[in-house]
Amino acid sequence: MRYIAYLFVLLITCNYTYAQIDLNDLTAFLKRKNQLPKDYVIELFKTNDIIIIGERDHRDTTQYDVLIDIISDPYFINNVGHIYTEVGVINMSDDANRVLKGEYETKDEFNKEFLKMYRDMDYNPIWEKYSMYKFMRQIYNVNRDNNKELTLTFIDDRFSWDGVTAKQYRYFKNHLRLNYHIRDSIMAKNFIDSYEKQKPIMGRKKALIIMSRPHAINMDIIYNNVVIKSSGSYIYDKYCDNVKIVLFNWYKWMPPGWFDWMPERKYELSADGRWDAAFELTEKRPVGFDLANTPFGKTVFDYNYEQLIQYHDVADGLIYYKPFYKFVATKGIPNVVDEEFEDELLNRIMVFNGRKGPGDLWRKAFCSRYKRIYSEYYNNVTSEDCTNYEKLKRQMNRWLSKKYSNSDDSNIAAKE
Fold first, then answer.
1. Span 124-146, pLDDT tens digits
2. Would residue 372 count as lying in a domain?
3. What domain range includes position 236?
4. What is the pTM of this model?
């Protein structure tokens, strides 16, 4: 009897998830919206002090076109001025601002100081995602041309590579990864502590926070005895209606091996592909809009923990920028590994992989080979698709085929 009742609830849940959103409603709504993503975020700042942007896959560099537009806008420079990022450990913030607000006689002098700082800013051996490199260099460009107005604060947990052992590193990573809400609470506290010390501009303290979507959302639940409380939720608890959370368009995805207790670990599009079909039908125009009282907001959230949580429950706005099959994963930091840093990088990788470190025999046998391998991996900038897009295209094209069943234009947009 209990099994039958479970199946009944599951059937209702599935039907509600996919039957609630109509493609025609999504398309009609989008046709009425024309505010560009940057303009949408800037307008939000005029009536709110804290904007949290939930980025998609860290590797995707296309979303940073929008983020760079935002921080380069005169209103942002003159009225906001403070940027907080998930990427980077908080104790490296002062060093980052020393570099990004510094004055240099030559470009080479800046590059040397920048790379020295960049190597140490994260608890990965090197943060090889090109998007952060691209973003931080634009902060420097803005500061160079605008009297050093932008301040960057990293909000991830405190960490230093100096003298760390494999045992210490393993404890550090397990502490953050196995206790999902602990890292979120640390990042939220680091933001709150820094924000409280922030000097007002034009009588207000404003801040842009950039985090991946799972951390940015306003999620506060218990699922299978696991506390799931995001950084966005902690920050919202503190500052309430003065916070707005805006998400980039994405798809349902989670790196293999992460958060195995999560339900519905599926690789698919939001709303079974209806969202992306609607964006295709409106010519894939970049746009930003509020989620409240919209068919997008009423869509069941991709990871709703079997509780029918909707998008407007966890976020306030959405940015559509680029169709999913145009997302670009770019890795590599030009010249980040030089001869002086090669030995340190090898030691970090050994620590990262749980070993004590290379001894003399290991060095003689493998040192030159691995120096070359890792130098090439981290130094060379390469791009690829974020994932295999063909399955996702098929999911979207089912809706486009229905819409264009009597047209020769079926599926053309998804093949561009």
1. 999 999 999 999 999 999 999 99
2. no
3. 20-334+381-404
4. 0.91
